User: Fold this.
Amino acid sequence: MTAAQFPAVTVEPFGDSAVMVTIPHPDPVIRRTAIVAFRERFLAHRPPGVLDVVSGLESLLVEFDPLATTLPHVEYAVRLLAERLPVQERLRTRTALRFAVPVVFDEETGPDLASVAEELGVAPAEVVEAIAESTFTISLLGAAMAPMMDGLRVPRPVRRLAEPRTDVAPGALMIAGTNAIIQPFPGPTGWRVVGRTPHTIVDISRAEPVSFGTGDVVRFVPVTRDEAAALDAGFLLPVEVSV
Assistant:
């Protein structure tokens, strides 16, 4: 998609110190691709007073300091950055990588596996099979650089937890809707925890804390606990470049 096709943005107040930015386009692929491209441009030209930028699957929450700037100024900066994308400039792209991520699926690593199976009306083994047969694409890097992925092929979207878990282990594979995400650090979540990878997916001691990015392709490979231990898994690395 060229910049000439870059859609306009919608900017709406979100409380008194934030705005929500979305892309009003009927195609969800365009909405998601464009919001990621706009996020990169916005971060590269962050306006004064902006405190944080929180990525959603199809949105961007821009938080600002109301003592340093105002809502109209932030809204103007958002619209200006969208409009001033040079006509001949292509939206930033990167060569997609492929990842094969080993995951242990059992009662301990996947405490929600049985309930997800019950919700979908299938056996737990069929949920694991569906995950393993799905091809995921990383749509965005969420909080703490967690990879949020599209592509879960199940009979219907998976509901979130009614009561979020307060402490989920690093490496936990979680699903909700038709999306998947890997927990990089211990923390709470409302997503359904179905397994865990032995790999470290985010390492802040490295110059490049993650090896993946938007557009990369991920497959999950079921392994036993013994197989996971034998892998001597460390920092997650890609297996190949996607053509």
About this structure: The two ends are 18 Å apart (CA to CA). Confidence is low (pLDDT under 50) at residues 1-5, 86-91.
